[in-house]
Amino acid sequence: KAVKIFCPGTIANVSCGFDVLGLCLDSVGDEMIIRKSEIPGIHITKIVGADLPLATQKNVAGVAALAMLKEITYEGGFEIEIYKKIKAGSGIGSSAASAAGAVFGINELLGNPFTNAKLVEFAMQGEALASGAPHADNVAPALMGGATLVRSYTPLDVIGLPTPSELYATVVHPQIEVKTADSRAILKHNVTLKKAIQQWGNVGGFVSGLFLNDYELISRSLEDVIVEPIRSVLIPYFKAVKTASKDAGALGSGISGSGPSIFALSKGAETANEVADAIRKIYEHTEIPFDIHTSKVN
Length: 298
Ligand code: HSE
Description:
GHMP_kinase_C_dom, binds L-homoserine, EC 2.7.1.39, six-stranded mixed beta sheet, cytoplasm, four-stranded antiparallel beta sheet, alpha+beta, Ribosomal_Su5_D2-typ_SF
């Protein structure tokens, strides 16, 4: 028995919600095939498209799957094939896609004994291996789709949010290396009350905008006064991309996860494609290799 899974890319943080907000992309993602095996344990048999370790303990999919197996009594094992399309270190949840795919697929093969909330917990163990921090803002939207909010980490409380039907994302990946662990290490640990007020106002506004289908409110709330000012210096042409996106009609833009990808949200596919054209023009004039996608948030 086997399952073939689409493991979607995700945008974590979504500007105002560092470590708590995430969006799922429906046209960017990896594929995974998982088979039941008579040999106990987790065996990663094939990885295509990336130079990643096959050793179970060193692979995010392997670690997430092991965390899951620990909680059940199952005599057999699983074989995992991973076909990577999301580049590692791009900022659209490459490690999360693998961790989420592994636990989702194994859960299917076992007849779904675990809830989404448990799957998020297992997949977070993969994230801990990848970035040193077990954050859930990529694995939650990868597993649950749409938009998600991590209301609390201890105890873990993940909320699925509705997404307006015309919400599209444009994501550009300037191919410079930014490691999540490094871009977390440069962050300050203290935030002024003034900035905290702005940030939680925006988180509330963004979530309300999703519920109310209010694109203007979503637009006003796409602001990050805490993390973006620090991380954006690592990303070439960040300001130019932000300005060009807004001029092309985007609702707003920011760093996707820990970068270097930049996302812009738009109302409608047409605007999202115009935003992509505007961003393309910026990087075309540079030496920086890049790729760009538009995707429905779904
Ligand atoms: N919330 C995490 C961070 C996401 O920004 O470090 C990493 O993809």
